[in-house]
Amino acid sequence: MLKIMDIFPAIDLLDGKCVRLYQGDYDKSQVFNDNPAAMTRSWLEQGANKLHVVDLDGAKAGHPVNLAAIASIVEMVKTTASQPVQIQVGGGLRTEASAIQLLSLGIDRVILGTVAVEQPQLVQELCQKYPQQIVVGIDARDGKVATKGWLETSQVLATDLAKRMAAMGVAAIIYTDIYRDGTMTGPNLESLRELASGIEIPVIASGGVSSLRDLLSLLSLSTVGVTGAIVGRALYTGEVNLTEAIRAVGEGRWQDVPSDLGTTNFA
């Protein structure tokens, strides 16, 4: 059976610039590009057909902040993409008005986080109004869900929240292990397997990817529903080449990867 995985280059916006945080710490941000549209063009030229955008300022403020930058990303995709490109955006979406605001820009899917814990009824209503356009981001510390831009940690278990959200009809779950995010120490395969095994909707892995080997390791979880991976810092530093990653796991051609990067049990 051919195994493939979607690769989502991450564009995290802070003060209108493309940055990466370390373990979600706003005080440990690194600017990689001050022009989100130009960064988008670069990912498109390397073959991206998915984009993961996070409004970090919005996550702290509780409403979208980097709307101009997000609009510039959408426009760049519209004017330069040679293939259909799916854009998903999260960060501070805590009302229906905020979700509509982004969808009206041409975003394909919006990502809800804090409201999944605090206003689950709103998630359900949005899923009914905008089917297949609502994604829930579950960001966890030690298995418990963090909220409000990762600044607070609830007592809600990530696995329990995933099950509730799946029952409400969300299109997918994005799972982030905060302790892995920005660290390039590899994804948390155990937590991903546990969460994905308990639901029947796609799970997108986020946090810790540092190499093509890490992406190949995620393919072992395709059988339990892990269908994609968000890659951030490793793309910006060059540790992962987007074109090569898409060729290896996005086109199901991992067999072509040099043997020293190969892993077992991918047949």
Provide an overview of this structure.
The protein has helices spanning 36-45, 56-61, 67-80, 96-103, 114-118, 120-129, 158-168, 189-197, 212-218, 233-237, 242-250, and strands at 6-14, 17-22, 25-33, 50-55, 86-90, 109-112, 134-141, 144-147, 152-157, 172-177, 203-206, 226-231. With 267 residues, the protein is of the alpha/beta class. It has a single domain (6-257), classed as TIM Barrel, CATH 3.20.20. The protein has an 8-stranded parallel beta barrel with strand order 1-4-5-6-7-10-11-12, surrounded by 7 helices. Helix 9 (212-218) links the parallel strand 11 and strand 12 (226-231). Helix 1 (36-45) runs parallel beside helix 3. It is globular and about 45 Å long. The N and C termini lie close together (7 Å).
List the helices and strands and how they pair.
Layout: E1 6-14, E2 17-22, E3 25-33, H1 36-45, E4 50-55, H2 56-61, H3 67-80, E5 86-90, H4 96-103, E6 109-112, H5 114-118, H6 120-129, E7 134-141, E8 144-147, E9 152-157, H7 158-168, E10 172-177, H8 189-197, E11 203-206, H9 212-218, E12 226-231, H10 233-237, H11 242-250
Parallel strand pairs: 1-4, 1-12, 4-5, 5-6, 6-7, 7-10, 10-11, 11-12
Antiparallel strand pairs: 1-2, 2-3, 7-8, 8-9
Helix pairs in contact: 1-3
